[in-house]
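pinging the channel bc i need a second pair of eyes. not urgent but kinda urgent?? the chain im working w is below, pasted from the shared doc
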Amino acid sequence: MALRESGEDYLEAVLVIGREHGVVRSVDIAEHLGVTKASVSKAVSALQEHGYIAVVRRDVQLTEKGRERAEHVLEQHTFFRDLLVAAGVSPELAAEEACHMEHCLSDDSFARLKEYVRGADRMSAPLL
């Protein structure tokens, strides 16, 4: 199953909440994403069915497959947020826009862009 943007958002939320609180409950996910508990239930079922998460005594946990994808999505989010803030965008707007940007590039394009930006940063050269 190729994950859609919303599926990746759920995985990222589980990762972030888990890091902050240790335990991830469906209500925490709903609050974090601003969605209903019914939406979380449906998404959790689908993600569980495809091997991205497991639910153990009401604790939503990432599988290895889910953790890998969630960490990649979070890396992209952080990269784009930090890049936008460095360019002068407000942190709030940068976080919101990074949430969209993290889903629109292929993994290969993201890797190339990240290397390009980091290479330009090391050389103190303009990006373009």
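so The chain has a mean pLDDT of 91. and The helical segments are 5-21, 26-33, 37-49, 64-86, 91-101, 107-123. — does that match what u expected or am i reading it wrong
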